[in-house]
UniProtKB/TrEMBL annotation, chains A, B, C, D:
One of its GO terms (biological process) is carbohydrate metabolic process. Belongs to the glycosyl hydrolase 4 family. Binds 1 NAD(+) per subunit. It comes from the Bacteria. Its cofactor is NAD(+). This is 6-phospho-beta-glucosidase. Substrate binds at residues 96, 150. Keywords: Carbohydrate metabolism, Cobalt, Glycosidase, Hydrolase, Iron, Manganese, Metal-binding, NAD, Nickel. The record marks 112 as: Increases basicity of active site Tyr. SUPFAM superfamilies: LDH C-terminal domain-like, NAD(P)-binding Rossmann-fold domains.
Length: 436, 436, 436, 436
């Protein structure tokens, strides 16, 4: 890293990339990125060039000696990289549309991370990520893999179990969103509130909130109980329930505790508007229209409405802290190392870590209540079963993952939806078809 | 026990009692029961007398010096007892009808043990059982409590946590039914097949099957996958799924893995025939008509169709083994004591035990697969939450139990069903109304 | 086994063999041994023939169709065996003399099982046992290995970790001796006293004693505190200490809790009489003189004074229970399988097991007190380190085993004694010399 | 704390106090201590005044508005304090002399922390510390207790178990000394080396060393193996042993792994020079002569030779980080909270923590090797047994602590030394004499 940092971004043609570039520009003082390699595949070449050109204009405007490369040659990009970020989407948004549509058509929530949809995103993505890990071992052994491709939990568990790579971190914006929401509720700047998170990706809980050395968890639970859900009217966490729970669930927990409500809403919404994926596709097209504008030289405001904001910001923050050994606390996905008693020593968890030059080191976040342990174990075993299915291409292992997923709840639907999704994604799941 | 054994049976007016009496008669050589006290409450007086008289005729016909007492005075019956069996039903079958009807009316499986219905049966029953424990401490300190009232898991967890009583065992006929089914499949007498069970009540798994010192689990899984479900056509366990699981689930697992199928069937059936409880009520009435017949001097054949056969037989077996220190293996509900790694040392589990004069001692049954651990933890935490709600009468604690139950799956329904059931069972849930 | 049982006894020329033969004769009704193969090595040929002839006379007198074979061809003996017992002694008693003498010459207890002496016995024996396991996989895959060669703990841990053999059991007479002593104290026949044992070989504790369904542990501890040690005058367990401990230590625990006393006695005794091994050697010579007598046709009384009585009896009992699937309780060394919470699931422990046709199944024996956990962990890690050193022949690994042994207590002595023993046993430790 | 911080130092008349005062002066910018209350008992009044006056001169010279109070009224000092530090010595150095002399006279290492001497220091000190905790609950509920009185492990375990106080931290200078030594070996400034510590007080291990994001543990172990011990010639850790261990033991580990060597040295040294305590007493007297000098206005150089340097510095650092919520990493004694898998969730450990306004939060430090787990468990159970003996005054519980201590190794000596020390310290152990 002596002559500045080299970053390789796989899936560089993503609409998120301008945020990432913006993040590197803002942090240049502390994080001198000299080379940013945006990598994509043939099908994404057109978008890659649009994004690459916008990035070049942004860097130029900032007056920084950061070089932007666009390439279809992943190995070239990985060579000597210091950090590799992955934001790829195997099968593009069309695949996600199927992930949502097919389950919904059988009255089941697809859920792109911890549901049937998430399983299939995992089955498509894991082989690619493991391939990147193999290349990294050869081309940039000491680099860190920073993954923010979903399903982050299943993918990181796969990296943990099936690649030898220790230097790998998974990222999500759920924790930072919750931190901001809690600080706002308490009318405090973020840095004055100490919050502990523990759990799994999209299954994370706030286990403690402290202000001025005082435990204010009860107060926060009281406020949280009133909060209405952004997208769905009338759905709020019941306060009495939250008090008994003693921890604050994240937004994705609603799929389990309010599954019926969400399902009804999803079906109704689907009838009117199609899937969320279809909506995202439309937004993306609009964004790329914007990106083409040669007068645009910065991250456009509209990007924030895309959802998933702060992802790239979180990635930049993480990379910056590793590079500078700042030892500040961030919430990331990494190997538990004994901190969450509910999980095995070697399982991936999402929790508070201090970020050192040697990577994230988990920090005690207390115990999770027994009442949520069942759900936690279910999702962890789902992640493991999904990862195993992804690397073996074994039908029965994929069926196991479907069956133990708490959103599935039906053997006949598990089989039908599995069969339909395997067929629909055939092209991206060669491991399941080699065997037959 | 020097002058023979005294047994007290709480809920003695139950239609099951003739089977119990029959069991004691058959085992008289090894288990000399001199006094059998059948206890019931005022509302059950009439049935108690019918059953008591049948019991007396049965004993007389057998020519045994076993005295049958019928009484409404529980303390009198407990005095100096050696064994106390509990087969009571707070609120009678009418309460169970509500436990099933109310959830079903909201499209939810009531499930009389591990669902919302089971929670309410627990809330009504636990205070009574804890009361019996208190009386036993005073009147028959060294006696064993043998409970076969459902929900056995929640009740035994309550006894374990909230009474000081160590001498308490919970019983279910699911394991013995599975043992018989497996032996039949293998064309072997029961005693030649060594089967290990581990889990919770109505959430138990066969973890191993051995014949002639050979592990035949794979073979049994293969056979089990084909078995169709007695009551519901077309529902079979998928073989590939079972193979991946590596253990054999019990019949109650279908509520979780085939919840949708079961729910649809239950709703349809309900529309045509009313609840299972209503059907049972009819059968019971017919049984009592039979029992009245002064020429009937033995357990009638029809009792076997009642469901829950072998319960009483299992109870007699257990009592006989304790009395004789036979150290044979039976599957019962008792404190885990480290044998199932998935559960805490002090939690109640259902598993193989050797039955000694000092009670059941758990025997290693291997590990449960990770894929079922989530469900296991969910039900265990449900049992604990239910037990806590039962002793405190706290609304929020009952809500917690509803919310974490995997059959509920909806916050709004959790609240509605909870409220309706609390209202419907008001009379039997004074602990929830004292507070208001 | 259809035509009767074949047993192979490795180290068949041992002075213990007549007890084993006697055991098989006594149990012939239930355990029809048709062939007993006594195997030994060239150096033991003479003794093997003496013992073999005595065995033949014993069988003849009993009038049983049991054939006794003596052979130097181990593979011939293993072919098609149903049970293989190992009672071998690599380097014979002369090696044990060195195991005791060399440590003692540096003021350290050699201790033939859990001390430096035991380590070296393990280093010599483990490769031979693993070799037998390999042969068994080939020649008698389904046979059970019943090992009563010391150090049983370390050897069984080695079999567990470094052979694929699951069908292997370690035996010791300490538990049965303690059972008998306790029953005697309580004036009860053995079968009326229920005793639980937990721990490691030669590091086992009585964790519970029950009579007539009553916990009599306190009473037994009270009696045990007074018991004086057979061989050493004036050494008794302090009652107050035992009460605080809450469990009853075995005789080998004295090496740790009364190390200084034992060491002084051992040094003094050594000066006067030489090592225990030297004394045993003399006794053995006398025994073989007896065995030669063609008029001797049964196990001679003098054998009982040899020490280690009941070992062979325990072995016969175990084999008989496996063969007949009796499911009675015996204390053996096998994989813990979660029963002792203090040990890993897969570590070997000594504890109550039911003996089935599928081998021993551990039974809950309660928790060990925290106060002895340290010692337990130390010995378990010593066993593991010793086993690892034995299979690798790595000097540093052997040094680690020495250093963590609680009887060593000195780095300089650890090194000196290690070096001297490695040199003294060079002939039997090729794995340590190949490397240099 | 709005108007500056109030500190109460119990045992304020200690010779260490000037270092503490110096520490507060140096950090005044970040840690504005307005009141420092030095508390002592009647017997220490003279020294208290000497130290108090020196402190006043130091503050005056620094030109800071920090007020120094000296008092015998502990409650007055505690009232409204923000931090309470404890550096007291019940029975003064004369008691420590007995702690060392009596065991040594029986050929046993007294060892003032984890040996028999440490047990007695604990028995004398724990009741006083628990008394301070009680006063704090009343007079300064939200204050932090910072204890650097030995035996820190046993005392903190007592505070943890027998006071309700959560805000309590134990401190030792061993970790910072090791950190400095390792940084020096690597020729790096302290802040560039990331070191993880895990274990118990005076039983702590370095589990990892990282430089520039690289694991350099092997290199450090290699260097550490050569390091000779300061006070005892010729004693070095064997490199091969350390490599097998995989962690770096602290200096106190030599008492266990080189017990014989240490004991011999201690006995020889004792014959020539008396105990370490006697030497310390002489040094202290010289220090107080210096302190009396009215021209001395700063911490004298000679204090550093006293041993235990950096203790006070560590205390000031800790207090400063809590006050400013700096979230930097320090090694302290606090409740484990799941981070060290080898210890219970609620047991006190010594390990890396981030220091927040809410106190220390443990940070993952990896696993300890199995080979040291036995020793760790032994000392933890010794701490627990000692704490229990201290609060109950029960003779047998004290005997248990003696018996399980790995330095004792003899039942007869355990009893003799226990009896002699109980007699020698009678005055300071009223809890053991009330009962008789
Ligand atoms: Mn996310
Ligand atoms: Mn049942
Ligand atoms: Mn033995
Ligand atoms: Mn210290």
């Amino acid at each position: 890293m002596s002559e500045g940092i080299k970053i390789a971004t796989i899936g560089g043609g993503s609409s998120y990339t301008p945020e990432l570039v913006d993040g590197f520009i803002k942090r240049y003082d502390k994080l001198p990125v000299r080379e940013l390699w945006l990598v994509d595949i043939e099908e994404g070449k057109h978008k890659l060039e649009i994004v690459g050109n916008l990035a070049r204009r942004m860097v130029e405007k900032a007056g920084l000696p950061m070089k932007i490369y666009t390439t279809l040659d992943r190995r070239e990009a990985l060579k000597g990289a210091d950090f590799v970020t992955t934001q790829l989407r195997v099968g593009l948004l069309d695949a996600r549309i199927k992930d949502e549509r097919i389950p919904l058509s059988h009255g089941m929530l697809g859920q792109e991370t911890n549901g049937a949809g998430g399983l299939f995103k995992g089955l498509r993505t894991i082989p690619v990520i493991l391939d990147i890990c193999k290349d990294m071992d050869e081309l940039c052994k000491d680099a860190w893999l920073v993954n923010f491709t979903n399903p982050v939990g299943m993918i990181m568990e796969a990296v943990n179990r099936y690649s030898g790579r220790k230097k790998a971190i998974g990222l999500c914006n759920v924790p930072i969103d919750m931190q901001k929401a809690i600080a706002r509720m308490l009318n405090r700047p973020l840095e004055e509130v100490y919050i502990t998170f523990g759990g799994l990706n999209h299954m994370v809980f706030v286990t403690g909130v402290y202000v001025d050395g005082r435990d204010v968890m009860e107060e926060v639970i009281d406020l949280w109980g009133n909060q209405s859900v952004k997208n769905i009217k009338g759905i709020e966490w019941n306060k009495g329930f939250l008090k008994q729970l003693g921890v604050i669930p994240c937004s994705y927990h609603r799929y389990y505790f309010m599954g019926k409500e969400y399902l009804e809403e999803a079906i109704e919404h689907y009838k009117e508007n199609g899937t969320r994926a279809e909506k995202v596709k439309k937004i993306e097209e609009e964004l790329f229209e914007l990106y083409k504008d040669v007068n645009l030289k910065e991250k456009p405001k509209q990007l924030e409405q895309r959802g998933g904001a702060y992802y790239s910001d979180a990635a930049c923050n993480l990379i910056c802290s590793i590079y500078n050994d700042t030892r500040d606390i961030q919430v990331v996905n990494t190997v538990n190392r004994g901190v969450l008693d509910e999980l095995e020593y070697d399982e991936v968890a999402e929790m508070n870590c201090i970020i050192t030059k040697n990577g994230p080191v988990p920090v005690s976040v207390g115990k999770l209540p027994k009442a949520v342990n069942g759900l936690l174990q279910q999702i962890k075993s789902f992640e493991i079963a999904g990862a195993k299915a992804a690397v073996t291409g074994d039908y029965d292992k994929a069926l196991l993952a479907m069956m133990i997923n708490p959103l599935v709840f039906s053997q006949s639907h598990a089989i039908t939806v599995l069969d339909e999704l395997l067929e629909a994604h055939k092209e991206y799941l060669p491991q399941f078809y080699r065997k037959q």
